[in-house]
Amino acid sequence: MAKAALNAYVRGASRPLGKRDIRINAIAPGNILFDESVWASKLKEDQLAVTQLLHREVALGKLGSSNDIANLTAYLLSTLSDFATGSVWTIDGGQVHS
């Protein structure tokens, strides 16, 4: 429920903030691998099971990294994304099914 509320806030706030030349976006990361993460533990326990799960459930067949999130953040902060506002950017390797 909290995620839905945040997503609604981002979409709703974009119009009044946009009139003040302020952009607002959110990033919704999927499964990210980093030291001490749940995924690092799962990979140590059963790498084959995790690999099979990723190939079955994630279009790109892999976990994301903190660099993936940083790159999207850098794009959203740059002038390359001047027309992007009021969006929730899902970065999950294609795991979300519509």
Structural notes for this entry:
- The protein has 98 residues and is mostly helical.
- It has a single domain, classed as Rossmann fold.
- It contains four helices and two strands, in the order αβαααβ.
- Strands 1-2 form a two-stranded parallel ribbon.
- Helix 2 crosses helix 3.
- The longest helix has 17 residues.
Short description:
The chain contains 4 helices and 2 strands, in the order H-E-H-H-H-E. It is mainly alpha-helical and 98 residues long.
Keywords, please?
98 residues; two-stranded parallel sheet; mainly alpha; single chain; 2 strands; 10% strand; Rossmann fold
What topology emerges from the helices and strands here?
Layout: H1 2-18, E1 25-29, H2 38-45, H3 47-57, H4 66-77, E2 87-91
Parallel strand pairs: 1-2
Total beta-strand segments: 2
> How many domains in all?
1
The total of helices stands at 4
- First-residue to last-residue Cα separation: 19 Å
Largest sheet entry: 2 strands, parallel
Beta strand %: 5-15%
Low-confidence stretches: none
CATH superfamily: NAD(P)-binding Rossmann-like Domain
The CATH architecture would be 3-Layer(aba) Sandwich
Order of helices and strands: HEHHHE
Structural shape: elongated
* Overall radius of gyration: 16 Å
Task: Kindly report the CATH topology.
Answer: Rossmann fold
* Secondary-structure class: mainly alpha
Order of the strands making up the biggest sheet: 1-2
Helix content: 40-55%
- CATH top level is Alpha Beta
